[in-house]
Amino acid sequence: MTIGANRIARLVLVAGLAAGMAAAWRWRALFDPLALTELVATSPAAPLVFILLHVAASLFFVPRTLLALGAGILFGWWWGVVWAAFGSVAGGIAGFLVARYIYPGFVERAPHGRLEALLRRAERGGWRMVAAVRLMPIIPHSLTNYAMGMTRVGLGAYAVGSLLGQLPLTIGYAELGAAGGRALLAGADWRTQVLWPSLIGVTALALSSLLPLLARRRMRPAPEAL
Q1: Distance separating alpha carbons of residues 153 and 46, to the nearest angstrom
Q2: What single DSSP character describes residue 225?
Q3: Alpha-carbon distance 92 to 160, whole Å?
Q4: Phi, psi (5° rounding) for residue 151?
Q5: Which candidate, 86, 85, 82, 68, places its Cα nearest to that of 179?
Q6: Alpha-carbon span 192 to 212, nearest angstrom
Q7: C-alpha distance across the termini of the chain, in Å
Q8: With 0-12 CB in 10 A as exposed, 13-18 as middle and 19+ as buried, what is 220?
Q9: Nearest to 12 by CA among 109, 2, 20, 54
Q10: What is the pTM of this model?
Q11: CB-hemisphere CA count at 13 Å for 151?
Q12: Residue-wise burial string across 168-187, b where 16 or more C-beta atoms lie within 10 A, e elsewhere
């Protein structure tokens, strides 16, 4: 592919992403957990449809917490975690590869400053840095995908770090979604289908708040000896 054709392809991809983000905002009601489960449940290949929706949501800045809640409601407290985690990693890899294709070598051309320093630090940290960033719920999932794709972090390291870093939040929201979904069903076993998923979800969310603090303290450089 020539340089001109490659540049046109990148521009088309960027335009497609922008149009997708606008469409996701326009029809954002479809990503409501209850509406999402109704949409996916009608398909005989529900897990595959859910993962494809998760990939699209990751590319278009739809919060993955909505997908995790929907996974818990639709698939239950075990398979909900499995498919939500798989979808989150698949979406993360998609955004990572898109950014790497659109703007390769961004770090080398970035002006010296805080952004370059952060990206360089991410490169040196590898999967550990990816996991630490994923543990911070204030950073949007899609933004992390695109930012990390502009670094030289390896795809394998990014996938492993994403899986480990997103697990606490994924487990928390999927379990709470499963508990809420079962609570709405008549005849549900409240101890096994509502109480236990709720306890697991709350515990996982508590861990997701504590782990970033521990990771930040561990990664803080030691003071120089006098």
Answers
A1: 32
A2: P
A3: 11
A4: -95, -175
A5: 68
A6: 30
A7: 57
A8: exposed
A9: 20
A10: 0.76
A11: 25
A12: bbbbbbbbbbbbbbbeeeee
Q: Which residues are CB-neighbours of 196 under 8 A, at least 6 positions away?
A: 77
C-beta of residue 157 within 8 angstroms of C-beta of residue 123 = no
Buried-state track 1-38, b at ≥16 Cβ within 10 A, e below 16? eeeeeeeeeeeeeeeebeebeeebeeeeeebebeebbe
Q: What is the pLDDT along the chain (226 residues), one digit of tens a residue?
A: 565 667 777 777 778 777 877 877 777 777 777 777 777 777 788 899 899 989 988 998 888 888 888 888 888 878 888 999 999 999 999 999 998 888 766 555 555 556 566 667 777 878 888 888 888 777 788 888 988 888 888 899 999 999 988 888 888 888 887 777 666 554 455 455 556 566 666 676 666 666 666 555 555 554 444 4
Tokens of 80: 């909900």
DSSP notation for 199-218: HHHHHHHHHHHHHHHHHHHH
Rounded Cα gap, residues 169 and 24, in angstroms: 23
105: left (phi over 0), alpha (psi -120 to 50) or beta: left
Classify residue 224 as exposed, middle or buried by CB count within 10 Å of its CB (0-12, 13-18, 19+).
exposed
Q: Are 83 and 129 in contact (CB under 8 A)?
A: no
Question: What are phi and psi for residue 13, nearest 5 degrees?
Answer: -65, -45
CB 68 within 8 A of CB 170: yes
